[in-house]
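Changelog-linked ticket: flavin-adenine dinucleotide example.
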Amino acid sequence: MIHPHQDIVIVGSGIGGLSTFLYLTESDAFKAGEISICLLAKSTLSTTNTDWAQGGIAAVHAIEDDFEKHVEDTMVAGAHVNDRQVVRKVVEAAPALLNDLIRWGTCFDKNEANDYDLAREGGHSEARIWHAEDQTGHAIQAALMQNATASDNSNILENTLLVDVIKDLNGLFHLQVYDESHKCFFEITTSKLVLATGGVGMLYAKTTNQHVATGDGIFMAQKLGASIENLSYVQFHPTGLVHEGNICFLVSEALRGAGAVLRNQQGEAFMHHYDERLELAPRDIVSRAIITEMNKNGETCVWLDATHLSSEVIDQHFPAIKSQCKALLNIDIAKELIPVVPVQHYSCGGIKVDAFGETNVSGLFAIGEVASTGLHGANRLASNSLLEAIAFAKFATEKRLDKNPEVQSPVPVHFNLECFDINRNQVQNLLSQHAGIIKTTKGLKDALAALQTIKSNAVSVAFNPFNFASGILLEVGILLIEDALRQDQNRGVFYNEDLVNDLVS
Ligand SMILES: Cc1cc2nc3c(=O)[nH]c(=O)nc-3n(C[C@H](O)[C@H](O)[C@H](O)COP(=O)(O)OP(=O)(O)OC[C@H]3O[C@@H](n4cnc5c(N)ncnc54)[C@H](O)[C@@H]3O)c2cc1C
């Protein structure tokens, strides 16, 4: 059993949570035994979107590259809605952060000259993607987990779900937590709470995200009074593999970076009709181009053609894509076309934080995909999200989290946990149909009304984690659609065809 008071509680075991944990365990305050830290993960430690990241993590390294180019690429992808100061801070920190990942044991691929083998992805003007085959996230997750579980005094709790949080009058956070292994609740108080709970993929019928991506951090932060922004800036990945089920396997951008071509049902390459950067245009442009091609002909997918790539390139760089296409659809990607559609992939908005990852609620931090830092603007540049998570873990721990917090006595609080019988599929279908790649004002209003009806008709049931998460999805879905209705301009990933202004991208 852990001590019921912790100085810092981190919720989440992806790159955001674990790198925050590791930076803290390296701090003087922790080494001197002055701060206690606990990390919770609602499933196993490795069940994270981080573990599934394929392409890699962006950082300037090549001689022909420079920070200015990475900054500009990030700003262009984000439709200049980004905070340029934040972009510069993250881009300039990136090489040192990559060194930290390497120091913690991540092995990035090297080339024949024994230098790092950098890939180029959509929207990047230079090759700057550090990768470990096409399983970069898995390599990072494994290294972080190994280090975190090896350190002493660590309180790392798997299958432990944060279900409620209240801030008391003395500024302490009271967490209500569900221990899934023992089917019981317990409470922790903490001075500083770090939400690193990841994305919102489960809001949609088709997503690349893990089942843990149910927007819990957004829900908790909103409840505590934190500002949430741009939740409707949802990035769709252009090339989700077409197969059964809610969670789709992602065919990484890196395959297009290596030369794979998108073709319509007639077998014609079509990206030259939409953008001069062709298959490597930013994801919003590629996704809309695919939807337009599909709509033109009433088709359900387009095709990704990697048949002209050599077997060596496929085997060396894309073993996971090759094996998943074989396992799920019995397709040999060296010889056959891959059926793909755009699927929900990444939440660009989220809990608004400052340059050190702290929200407007003192002591409440948000790190990783759950946060809105200003880095991505209206669209995330590929491979900038793993970078953002470790960058803000570093910024937060260096300046705010490493201080020994003043000890306050807790003021008793009363939790009132509620769980409802929500039809999750209904929520997902409403979001997919009306808050997808191309939106209309009427569709958004209809979806909002339908979600509110589901909420008013919801029947209370005994607590179980699945229903509880469905209730959170409903609340976050409402927030997302309200945000979409507030947007008055089409930019980046956001596109409502009823807005009269031209698309800025
Ligand atoms: C298929 C795929 C490929 C991707 N490829 C890339 C890529 O190549 N490059 C790139 O930069 N980005 C990529 N991304 C995006 C990137 O992986 C994620 O944005 C990033 O890993 C998010 O990290 P995180 O730490 O914020 O969240 P996650 O890694 O998703 O971790 C979330 C954690 O929060 C925990 N959690 C959630 N709610 C609760 C709760 N209530 N109580 C307790 N714990 C909770 C979960 O259990 C989990 O441990 C990809 C994403 C996917 C899905």
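Closing comment: Example verified and attached. The radius of gyration is 22 Å. The first strand starts at residue 5 and ends at 11.
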